[in-house]
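W.,

You were right to be curious about this one. When I first looked at the sequence I had no strong expectations either way, so I just let the prediction run and decided to look at it fresh. Below is the sequence, 94 residues in total, followed by the output.
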Amino acid sequence: MSSSDIDSLRAELDTIDEEMMRLLGERFGVTRRVGALKKANGHKAVDPAREAAQDARIRRQAAAVGIDGDLAVAVMRLVRARVVEDHRAMGVGD
């Protein structure tokens, strides 16, 4: 593999990373709307049943595309932790 091959693959990775950031931004836009609805309707910031269902779904999706399920769940738990922080900052209770 030549240096130009590596550069080409790195450019492809950069494009994928850019798309991941765009999707993450889109996801946080939706979670802000969820937070507003939770606040308006007196819901808690954390829904353990929803989180368990998400973890199971994420594991299935990860397996379907050949990604380690533990890694996928860890990444999404990090994202969810930030969402909960955001919701609490919006005044969503526990």
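Here's what jumped out at me. Residues 35 and 87 are 5 Å apart (CA to CA). And, maybe more interesting for your project: Helices lie at 3-41, 48-64, 69-89.

Coffee later to discuss?

I.
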